[in-house]
Design a protein that fits this description.
By secondary structure, this protein is α+β, with helices and mostly antiparallel strands. It has eight helices and 13 strands. The two termini are about 35 Å apart. The chain binds aspartic acid (ASP). The site of aspartic acid has 15 residues, from β9.
């Protein structure tokens, strides 16, 4: 019997802001995760491919300003937005990725088009934008990505000349008067200044195929031109029916140095260990050796799902076809 189709998603990992926990914000995150999982579940229930399910889930996460991808992406040191995304099909090992784009509304859809329509795997900057336009994607004005909450967060981080990390969350604790209710506020469950808000999805479909997708605005106040793990096949995204599908979130530089997503698949293939053991080793043993913080989501062709992280929290969830979605934020 075929294992039940399943989808898992993440909306970034990070430090929990315990002192300022806001039940309403928490509720908004759970509701958003549930909606995305339900949409992915629907794709899988109607016989859709794992590739279709992860594309749709990540597209919805990109459109949601609560997460750092697409609308609501973080700011670079130049006050701009540079987006990265990647996608991989475990049944063919085909992949597509774009990075450093500034006018692509849904980077994951363009990455998917790279997978389907190009002989290349990855496009960057102006070339990626040109590819998107040639493929019929309407460019958006860069103001589309702007949210007041991310802008405030950037001004604070920039004032301290940091690249998002190790910022004192308490300085970001004042409520934003008149803030847009749809946007993240300083009361969100995970400290906005100590969070990696990348989004991702992995899925197994009814046909036994897996796929993975990852999309991000990167890290707040990053230097222009900086590229993280999210668009790199093997670092932030990997899928192979023979082993598993993986999407990561965290300190991208460390995930790149550990080739984190591929390492999960490689450990399963070469060490013969389970999905859970391989993913746990990468997140709990290997990444911490170089101070790598964050987590990943992974699924294998048997329908096993694992969502390990070494931070205090990770926005995450999974849904098997025919079963209510499960969402979680904390440990
Ligand atoms: N991994 C992403 C990057 O380094 C950040 C994140 O996960 O939010 O660009």
């Amino acid at each position: 019997m075929n294992p039940t189709a399943v989808i898992a998603i993440h909306g970034g990992a990070g430090t929990i802001l315990r002192t300022l926990m806001d039940p309403n914000a928490e509720q908004r995150y759970h509701a958003s995760l549930t909606d995305v999982l339900t949409a992915g579940q629907k794709v899988l229930a109607t016989g859709g491919s794992a590739l279709d399910a992860v594309s749709e889930a990540v597209r919805l996460l990109e459109d949601n300003p609560l997460f750092n991808a697409g609308r609501g992406a973080v700011f670079t040191a130049d006050g701009t937005h540079e987006l990265d995304a990647s996608i991989m099909d475990g049944s063919t090992l085909e992949a597509g990725a774009i990075c450093c784009v500034t006018r692509v509304r849904n980077p994951i859809l363009v990455a998917r088009r790279v997978l389907e329509a190009s002989e290349h795997v990855m496009f960057t900057g102006a070339g990626a934008e040109a590819f998107a336009v040639a493929q019929g994607f309407e460019p958006v004005d860069s103001s589309y990505f702007h949210t007041d909450a991310r802008h405030k967060q950037w001004l604070l981080v920039r004032g301290q000349q940091r690249v998002m990390l190790d910022h004192d969350g308490a300085t970001f604790s004042a409520p934003s008067p008149g803030g847009d209710a749809e946007e993240p506020t300083p009361h969100e469950p995970i400290d906005p200044n100590r969070k990696f808000g990348t989004v991702g999805a992995v899925a197994l479909d009814q046909h036994g195929h897996v796929a993975a997708a990852t999309s991000t605005g990167g890290v707040t106040n990053k230097q222009a031109g900086r590229v993280g793990d999210a668009p790199l096949i093997g670092a932030g995204c990997y899928a192979d029916d023979a082993t598993c599908a993986v999407s990561t979130t965290g300190s991208g530089e460390m995930f790149m140095r550990m080739v984190a997503a591929y390492d999960v698949a490689a450990q399963m293939a070469y060490r013969g260990v389970s999905l859970e053991e391989a993913a746990g080793d990468v997140v709990m043993n290997r990444l911490p050796r170089i101070n790598g913080r964050g987590g990943l989501i992974a699924v294998d062709a048997l329908g096993n799902v694992t969502l390990p992280f070494n931070t205090e929290g990770m926005y995450r969830g999974f849904a098997r076809v025919g079963v209510a979605p499960v969402t979680a934020i904390y440990r």
